Each structure stands twice: as C-alpha cells, then as structure tokens.
Amino acid sequence: MRRILLALILVSTLVSAPAYAADPGPIYDPVPTEPVTSKLGLVLTEYAQFPKSETNPPLIDQRLNRVARINTIMELPDGSGRRAVPDLNGNLYIVKNGVPSVYLDVAATFAPQFFSGRGLGQGFGYVAFHPDFKRNGLFYTIHTEQASQTTAVPDYAQTNVLFHGVINEWKATDPAADTFAGAHRELLRIGFGGQIHGIQEINFNPTARKGSADYGKLYLAVGDGGLGVNNTDPQNLAIPHGKLLRIDPAGRNSPNGKYGIPPSNPFVNQAGAAGEIYSYGYRDPHRFSWDRATGKLYLGHIGEHAIEAIYEVRAGDNMGWSEREGAFVFDKTPATACDRLFPLPADDSGYTYPVAAYDHNPAPGWNCTSDVGVAVAGGFVYRGQDVPALRGKYVFGDLVDGRVLYTEASEMRRGRAPATIHRLNLFTATGTPVRMQDLSAPGAPGDPNRVDLRFGTDARGELYILAKANGKIWKVTGTRTYAGASAGHVRVAPAPRASNWAPVTPSKWQFTNGQVILAEAGSERPGPRRPFEYAVLSAGPAWKSVDIRAQVRLDEPVTLTNRDVIIVFGYQSDTQFYYAHLSTDNTILPHNGIFKVNNADRERIDYQWNGRSRGANPAVVDEKWHDVRVKHLPATGEIAVYVDGRSDPLMTARDTTFSSGRVGFGSFDNRGRLRDLTVTGTPAA
C-alpha cells in the first residue's frame, strides 16, 4: 500500500502541479488511483423530511423524478435558528425544529414563465440571505424561465437562447415572519443557449466583516449552458457564461443599472470584459464555500467526461475550460473517444489547476452520450464543534452515487500535489453501517441508485447531508470507527502443518518452512462460481467475530494481469463463505474486493466497487510479502480489509448472512503462500 500511495502522489501531481510528459499521446485514465477509504465514519441523524413536489411543466428527464429537489440547507443570519431549504420545483421552505413549512412559493410568483421541467439545474435553484437580513430583510433567489414563454430580454445572452436564469432581490416586510410578505425586484437576467449548466449557486462570503470590501457582495456561479464543449464562451470575458461573478446588489453602476460592479473586481478596467467577472473558465461551477478559519474560497466543478475537481479560487483565475479539463488538455476533436485527454504542453501557462480531483472511470465500451454516473457535489470545510474528528476537513461528495468524501484543507494547496481524497463511511444514529444509496432509496421515485447528494451547514458550522431522491436531510451528529469494536480475546496461532489445514485438493499444497503454500494453481470446479483452490484452518474453533492477521505473497509474476490470493472467513461449507480477494487488478468485477458465496455465483459486496469499472486500489502489486488484516463483526455485519499496516482499511463491506465460520487461505487460479497467521476473536458456540 505504501508503494501505491507513493505512485498516487507521483502520478497525480499532474492534477495540481503538472509535470509535462514527453509523450504527447492521449490519456484515458487521468487519475489512476481511487479515493482512499477512511476508517472514519459519520453518524447521520435524520433531521427533516420534505413533501413530494412536481416539476413545472411535467418532467421530461426521469432523473428529475425525485421526492423533493432540495438543493441545500442554510441558517438565516438573524439568530432565530431557522433554516432555509430551496426546492427546485418552486418552494422556499423555512425549517423550525426539523419541521418544514412554505415561506415563499417562487414558482407561483413567476407563473406561467417559471420553468423546472427540463435540465437538471432548472427551476428555483438557490437562495442567499443578506448577512444583515435581520435588519434589512433582503434575500436573493435564482429561478429559470423558458425563453419562448417570456417577452423579457436578457441582460447577457448566448446565441439561440432557450431559457433565462433570473436573479431577484426580495425585501421582507417583517424579517422575523415565517411566511414571506413584501416586494421583489429583478437584478440580472442571463440567457442560455442550452438546457443545462445555468446559474447554480448564489451566496455571500460569511467570513467578510461588516465594512470590508467583500461584505454584502453577491457571488454567482454561472455555467456554460452546456455549450462550452463546442465553443469558447467560458474563455470569452465579454459574457458571464462559464464564470464566477461578483456583484453589489446595493449598487447601480451595472450595464442594466440594477446592481453594482465592485471596483475591486479583477476585470473592471479591462476593455471588452464584463466587470462582474471574478474568475472564469468553468463548465459547471456547481457549489462553492468559504473556509471560515482561513477565508479561502473552494469550488466544486463538474467535468465533461473525465475530471471532477475542487478549486481554490482567487480573483482573476482562469480554470481553463474548455481548453483544459482539470490539469489536462481537453480533446475537442470530433468523432474521437469522448473521455480522451492529453498532457499539458511544456509552455503551458495562465491556468489554475485543481487542489483535489477524481475521475470518472467509465466502463469499457461506454456510450459517450450516456451519463457516466459521477459528478462532484462541492461541500464545506468543517469548522463546527459537535464533531471534533472532522475539523479542518473539506467534506464533499459525488452527487450521483452518493459517496461522501473529504480532503484535509491543509493539503489543498495551489501549485502543489493534489490533496488525497478519502472516502467516509456512514452510520445510522443506531450504529448500523449504511451507504447514502441505502438511506435515500426508500420511497425514491425514478432511479433509486441516484442519490442526488447535497450539503449544507448551519450558523455554528455543523454539517448536513441532503438527498433529493427521497427528500430527506440528515445532520452529522458524530463519528465512529468502521469495524472499530473488539472482535474478542481468544487467540490462535496455528502451526503451518498439514494436520491443521483442510485443503480442497491436498496434493496442491505444501506446509513447510513456517508457511502454508499453494504450490499448484487450482482448477474450476462444479457448482457456484467461487475460488478454485483454498485451505480451511481446521485447528481451533469456528469463529463469530474475528480479527485475522497474516502475511501473504503471490508466487506469480505480476507482469501477468489479474493475479490474486484470497483470505477466507465466515466459512460454513464449500458453497457458503466470505472471502477477501487481494489482487493486482481492480478494474474487473471479480477482482480486488470482498465477496460472498451463498450457494450461488459469488456476489461482490464491498463498498468500493463503483458498479461498473473500478474498485479499491490494487492490494498486491509485486511478488513480496504483504501484511493483511481482515476483521469481521457479524453482529453489525462490518467487514474491513487492511493491507501493509495501514490504519485505514483498503476495503469495507456490510453483510449479515453468515454469523460465524472458519478462516482460510487460497486463490482462484494462481499460486501463493501465507505465514505468521494469528486469529483473534470470539469462538462460535
């Protein structure tokens, strides 16, 4: 594992502090390593359930078929403890003590022009409350309107406009009221030539002090309309598309006279440039937030076909789209592989590269017009008090598959190697291990595997996780260590002699020099698909909870692909057991994972497999000895596999099929050996 992590550092310097490859050939796997599974798990307590809402007009894209298209949660900056939640289908909710009520119906206000039925970011997209809301009652919203249904003229527009993104200012007559009454006015209207990538978020800098240059300035994350892949709009400083904007709602020096352009904006005095632009070169700048301790601005950026990125944003930055995707040259050549990127040229300059990134890992034969299934959901650097283990971590995730990730904020440094991305485990409030897909699927219409993950915080900096799939919000209320409980205290260290082992084919095994040796590769046997050859430890008891530690080695050249050894546990019979598959390859379903055989074809159960093309980072990458630890806690179903002494598991799973069993060692069709085996745990009755 240490070698793997070193390779990760060396290869992934391309993402943030790029090395310029002499070979200009295409790159099909730009981030070859996967997020590192963390032993840390978040405890999620359900906070609120939102009512079913419908798109207007009726949905066209089934991915919009959600219980409630809730986008974030935030606390009103008035000390009341009330939280605000926008639903893309039209309602702005106020939440008190976990109970939502409608504060403002944005859809009804702008009917019949209001439009939320096509495009994943269309509808009532976001709300931002002025930091002095308690006194002035001001807040701001984004909504979309179909161009064919309105006579309004955009302030800025792409060609062949299909929809408008509209920013409105609202003034509440009574800021303390739980139902809005007051007035509104339009600030800015932007026309988009595509159905996607509109205005994704608006927000105020919570770290700006009253009286400072950034206080009361509204930031707007504006997408490229879905057209940047084929045009230069994100690089065109004359228009706001593919940009992060900063405006002053209290000013009036904008081209339309409805808002102000801060004089400190980086392009204010540049001829032909829109003064509202703060940074540029974006495809879909989805979510952004400020670290309340450092004031740094981080932005989650959804890529085209390969790179999901986190940027640290400063005034004047150019993130490169669509000349660049992440820290790679984007291939605009028609009729070529849609996930193909190229290394940067030696004379590269002028672009800002991600401080963290992961890639899509499309399955072989992927259809370029289909959804590859990953898109980053930007998050927050945790600075709350309730969850000390999270402090200083930038928590974000993948909005499609629901993985919750983090990086250390201290590692996210511009011009340096990218921060290591860790995958967090999740637990219910009662301590049951879960995935977001488990939490969000119940009652979810449409695709139950699509979580539609989002994040939010309250005034104290505590963290919330949202799922559009079933319209629920959970609060992060603590942490647990995955498979952290003791397995027990009975210890067995069996001698490696034949009398202690029961092999499938005894003639293929040797027990000598302190080692258990599979000297001849096994052959496939009748019955369910399962490892071809293994030996079960017959000495000592069968085990309930168990902690297995040993050293293993491959006796095969790793220049050959798909080499493996296995650790058996929970063994009850030749067709009923678990096994940890430790392989040189992590790109095909049967390799490098945690599996169950239960009188049927082996079933992959580890959380690390993405369902299509990639699992945890390779476990055994050479022909040397490797430390392996497998921990199984049947009471909760937790399974964790560790390699080479790392404190974080390489693989995790949860399954409660087998509550006890024996342990063993083997392979599918390779040769290998085991030594220094110790088994600690609780014997089965």
Automatic annotation (TrEMBL):
Q: Does the keyword Nucleus apply?
A: no
Which taxonomic lineage is given here? Bacteria, Bacillati, Actinomycetota, Actinomycetes, Micromonosporales
Task: Show where the Glucose/Sorbosone dehydrogenase domain sits.
Answer: 84-412
- Source organism: Paractinoplanes ovalisporus
Instruction: Name one matching Pfam family.
Output: GSDH
Signal sequence region: 1-21
- What keywords would UniProt list here? Signal
Give the protein's recorded name: PQQ-dependent sugar dehydrogenase
Which domain of life does the UniProt lineage start with?
Answer: Bacteria
Checking InterPro entries in the record gives: 6-blade_b-propeller_TolB-like, Glc/Sorbosone_DH, Quinoprot_gluc/sorb_DH_b-prop
